[in-house]
Amino acid sequence: MISIVNKNPGIFFKYLKTPEQEFAESIDESFGMIFNQKSVMAEISYTSFIDPKEVNDLAELIVIPMSSPIVITEDATDVKKTEAVLNMFYNFKWVDSGEVRFAYTNNTKSLVDWLYTPWEARSGSGFYSRQVTGLSQATDYKFKAQLRYDSTEIDGVTVNVTGMSFTTNSNVSLVFDQIKGYEPSIIHISGDIYAVAYRGDDDNGLLITVRIADDGYITDTIIDTLSYDTEKGYEPSIIHISGDIYAVAYRGDHDDGLLKTLQIADDGDSKMLT
Known about the structure:
mainly beta
């Protein structure tokens, strides 16, 4: 059961912009009224047949003409230093088929200075994604989906009338220890996972695992931290033995030479072998 209370008297609505596109399509097919292309607020109340409890929430509603093809600009995903994936939802309705593409621009430029992805033939309704590359790092971009049929071209509906936006990454450095990080030794574990063994505060021996992408982007969170020696861990050197087994050689307390083995999983989880 779905019921919607319009908060804007005199304005009829048809399409609900939510992450749940299937729910939106059910609204799209259920309301046949006269529509205006503007945003309104509505209170949504529905009962799920799977989880039968009422849910009330406020959501943005996008109002669109009922009979026209539509294209909706979705959030960008997989945003990196110089690339991003742009996303849209399209529905050609009675037209049946046409073409879709994306327009994007650096936010520091004029909104008429757009770059475009190639037109791609599509039919019916569905989602479409396209990766754009060659972007500038640490830069704000604006983008919009576009749909074309016959001689008509329309821009994607968004809550922000000038389009959706994203910012490319710039994280090419990471402070893995804010106090001390002496004599680090780094080794590749698997995929984009790396481990760093080093001498930390109070000269104890530490190991952390981090994620570094192929383009050099470093995730700004440490995956796991392990102490390979709680007393002293000078000049560590770490090597791979076999599978998920690694060995670290270092100068310990009283300047004696020590060698220990540890286990580092492909996802970065680590533990000492006993």
